[in-house]
Every structure is written in C-alpha cells, then in structure tokens.
C-alpha cells in the first residue's frame, strides 16, 4: 500500500505527527502537496473526490479510503505497522493519550492566535501575550506533568506497552515543538520533565527517525506553523 | 454491563455527548458524580484508581477499563450499542466527524475563555468579544457548512449510513448548544442550516432522547458550561 499524505506545504504542523508515524514504520508514502502544491488539497475539501470529505488537512488516502483528523489517522495506521499494541483496550488507551496531545497542540496554536484563526499573529499580539502566560504557567506544566506520570506509571520509557508506539512519536514531536517555541519555559521545567526529555532523545535516535530528521523531508520549525518561536511570548 | 460515567456536576459540558449516546442506547449507567459529588472524580485524575488515567472528565468506567476523551468514549460505546455501522471504515469515518465536532466545541468554549481557561469570563471580556466575532462570522458558518454538506452528500438525514449514529446525536447537541449560546447568529444562519435543524428535530423526537430531555437527568444549559449565553457575545 502506498499512502498519500495531504498537508499544507512549508510547515510541520499537524501533518508532522502523521509523517513521524509513516517514517518510523518505513511505510511507502507520497507527501502529495510537496510534489504538486497546496492546490492538490482543495478538491478533497470541496467534496470533489471520492472517500470521506475532510474538514481540513492532514488527511491520508489509503486505497479508496480517505481519513482525516490527526489522531484518527494515527489510530488507523498504527495497528497496520506495529505502532500500537494489538489489543482493542490498548488501542483505545493510545487514542485517549493521543487526543490529549491533540488538546495541548491546539492550545499551543492558540497562544499565537487567541482571538481569530483567520487573522495574523500581528493583529492579536496583546491577547497572545496573555494567552501565552496562561499556557506557560498553567497549561504546559499540567499537560507535561500528566504525561510524565503516564510514563512513570508504565515502564518509565514508553507511553504504553513495552515498545515504541505512535504516542511516543507524538510526545517526541510535542516536546520538540514546545522547546522550539518556549525554550526558556521548557528550561525552567527541565527537572519536572526528565522522562519526557529522555523519551525525546530515544525517539530521535531511532534509526528511521534519525534518518528522517537529517533528511530534507523534515522541515525546520518556523513562524507559519503551530509551534512558533516569538520570544515575547516566552517567559522573561 | 453497567457503565459508570464520571463528569462534573452542574453542567452538560462534554459529558453530555456521552450521556446522549448512553440514553439513546438504553444503556444502564450511573452518573457517578451526580450521586456522590465531584470528589468521586479526583482519585482517577490522580492516578489512584486502576485503569487508564484520564487527563480530565468525562471518562467512563466499563468493567475494569477506564476510557477518557469524549470522542474516544463514543467510539468505544457505539459499536456495542448499534450507534455506528459495523464496518471498520465506517467507524473511522464516524470518529473523523466526531473529532471535527470536538474541534468546534473547543472553539465554542474559547469564545468565553480566549486567554486563560483557569480565569473567569469576567476577567477576559474584551478578548471574548473579539474571539466571539470571529467564531460567529467565520467559524460557525465554516463548520456548519461542512456538516450540511456531509448530510447532503449522504442521505440528507444522517451523518453516515442510513440510521441514527452517535455522530447524529452529537450534531443534535452541537446545534442545541449553539442555538442556546448564539441565538441571533443561528437565526441568521437558518437558511444555510436546514438539514442540521431538521436533524436536530428528529433526534429530539427519538423516544429515548425525548424521554431523557424531559427528565431531570437533562440539565439546562447554563453559564458554567461550554455553551454559554452571554448576549454581548452574540451578534447585535
């Protein structure tokens, strides 16, 4: 099966969580918009293609099936590629964890877009400062504290089971994104995120992930994506 | 199987999407916090109970399994109670739609909490006005336009398949919540939401749903929940 991934060009964004799973699995896939441009995405959003109509990218074409919503794509791919334990209960639990990652990712986005997703950051800077203060002081510690506890109550190294899963890959991406966007905050939280930081290092060293990160397929973080480094939004 | 639902007392909130599925299925369940108080929730959040540790309510206890994240709970319950078609592809599609409902529900919440979830609405009123304007003018039409198209491209009456599913129940709740919170906006959009409004009426007339809505188990919308009616946040 050669998958087709559809996601906006130029940013890691939510598509990156899917890319990491495809790359770690060694799956064959085309990153369609990078080859054909963002316009390749539009017919799907307009309902002009067979298969499920997505509200937004990322979406994945797998044969005749079109699948949207990041966590849902991962829940679909994972059992096909050994990225989640086989039991139904484990897959339900993995999705619960992934959806909690979805929640903090959405909140990370809203730090630079607190009042209007369709406007520029520059049009909502005072509100972004307020939202970011809450995110740094309340939300990051709460979410990362939760995931630290999840790791600790498992084997200390994996979100679930005894092997790498798509949730571990997504935690890697979450940590990488937060460290890019809020380096001073994340430095302050170092001692409270030891397991997550160690997980991040281990995932980065997985052979296929290491090869991916060193390849041109891995875009750099930038200020068009979800995790943006605006120094004025980080702590002083 | 007698389920245990855990959700904050006093509000419909995200728990209501689960309640509607349990009620429509005629499933046996206890709404635990309503019987024992919100403190019954806390040991789960602290990881002091067996089963998956939730980040937040709602969560469901089903035998020894604990399941959190609204869409995930619904994806678990639905095939057990005929609330989704049997095929794996249908269940993936249903979850995609439900996660898109999750997205607009989160945005509805952020209209009254645009800068800090842990502060009161009264502490973020100017920002709430801005966020609400964007939500009313850009986001509600975009999301509801999408779901109208989903209905139209199916049979006009159901989100997927030819029968009621958990997604239909959630669309009912979404419409009810938006009409409570933004009555003037929703009136303006009446002609663009004919299928969603008809679906809402049909769901409300389903015997078990009608009985539920008339019972004391259905709380009224209020200004502690997700869908809040602040007239200053609706259009003029």
Automatic annotation (TrEMBL), chains A, B:
Keywords: Transferase. Pfam families: GST_C_3 (PF14497). Residues 94-233 form the GST C-terminal domain. GO terms for biological process: glutathione metabolic process. The keyword Transcription regulation does not apply. One of its GO terms (molecular function) is glutathione transferase activity. The keyword Transmembrane helix does not apply. This is Glutathione S-transferase. It comes from Dyella jiangningensis.
């Amino acid at each position: 099966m050669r998958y087709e991934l559809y996601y906006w060009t130029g940013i890691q964004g939510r598509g990156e969580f899917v890319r990491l799973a495809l790359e770690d699995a060694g799956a064959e896939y085309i990153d369609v918009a990078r080859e054909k441009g963002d316009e390749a995405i539009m017919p799907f959003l307009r309902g002009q293609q067979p298969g499920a109509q997505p509200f937004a990218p990322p979406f994945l074409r797998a044969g005749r099936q079109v699948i949207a919503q990041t966590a849902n794509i991962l829940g679909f791919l994972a059992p096909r590629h050994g990225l989640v334990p086989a039991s139904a209960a484990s897959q339900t639990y993995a999705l619960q964890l992934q959806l909690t990652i979805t929640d903090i990712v959405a909140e990370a986005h809203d730090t630079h877009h607190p009042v209007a997703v369709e406007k520029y950051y520059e049009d909502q800077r005072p509100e972004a400062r307020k939202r970011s203060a809450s995110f740094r002081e309340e939300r990051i510690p709460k979410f990362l504290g939760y995931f630290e506890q999840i790791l600790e109550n498992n084997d200390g190294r994996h979100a679930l089971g005894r092997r790498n899963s798509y949730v571990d890959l997504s935690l890697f991406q979450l940590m990488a994104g937060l460290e890019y966007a809020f380096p001073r905050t994340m430095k302050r939280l170092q001692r409270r995120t030891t397991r997550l930081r160690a997980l991040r290092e281990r995932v980065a060293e997985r052979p296929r992930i290491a090869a991916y990160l060193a390849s041109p397929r891995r875009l750099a973080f930038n200020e068009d994506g979800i995790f943006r480094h605006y120094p004025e939004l980080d702590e002083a």
